[in-house]
Amino acid sequence: MNILVTGGAGFIGSNLVDALIKRGDEVVILDNLSTGKRENINPQAQFIEVDLRDLEKIKPYFSGVNYVFHCAALARVQPSIEDPVKYNDHNVNSTLNVLVAARDAKVKKVVYSASSSAYGNQTQMPLKEDMPPQPMSPYGLQKYIGEEYCRLFFIVYKLPTVCLRYFNVYGPRMATVGAYACAISIFGQQRKQGQTMTVVGDGQQRRDNTFVGDVVRANILAADSGLGDGRSINIGRGKNNSVNEMAAMIGGPTTNLPPRLEPRETLADNSLARELLGWEPKVNLEEWILEYKKELGI
């Protein structure tokens, strides 16, 4: 199978590329390395350094491709609040270009990496796909716009698409520093350096954390499934932990930073993924953190 993965040098994309190559697929990676890393690139994949915002440049690489996994994005909520124009350009315009290129190349299906940040603050848990989106950040809105474009391209152009709403993905190759790092990664790096862990707000915010390997399986199942009507499907563990609980799993002293604009809680209802994809999460956060701590030597 000929596969194209955008963002294949990034955290989730590179893990997906490895799994695709392991099962015998031919993979082309499109990535501008703005957040991806060369060391993440599987040497058996064809790597093209290109910006997805340039439609004419990316179009040729879609020729002969069976499936597209659109993982590329400028991720994370807080940086998008600080620079919404830049984030919109990368997250909305690039997604539109990928869909246009896939449509024109008559690709069999596009699997889109959506985000649970589209939900924003909801009054009921768990979060279900039929809840009205209430994004609280430019990033959340931009990722939701991508979902709507996927749905639209199926309706108008008959391009099969599926949208997977990820919940706080963690695992190998996750960012360790800067604005793109998640809480688990930040805490681990802080303890490795003998620093106090910095908890934002009161630490009672709850997050559904999902292992990257489980997300990779969901992508492959979505591509192999008969689904293609642009629907959105939650990919989350279905269990959440507070930030304070995550810090306690890492272990060590904490200090609190001022609160920021963010949802109070995320918790996936993953029943649709189980029903339509035959997917279920396999990796437990608590057990993974024990191994992570060994790797870090803490």
UniProtKB/TrEMBL annotation:
All residue ranges annotated as the NAD-dependent epimerase/dehydratase domain in the record: 3-236
UniProt superkingdom: Bacteria
One protein family per Pfam: Epimerase
PANTHER family tied to this protein: BIFUNCTIONAL POLYMYXIN RESISTANCE PROTEIN ARNA, UDP-D-APIOSE_UDP-D-XYLOSE SYNTHASE 2
Identification of the protein by name: NAD-dependent epimerase/dehydratase domain-containing protein
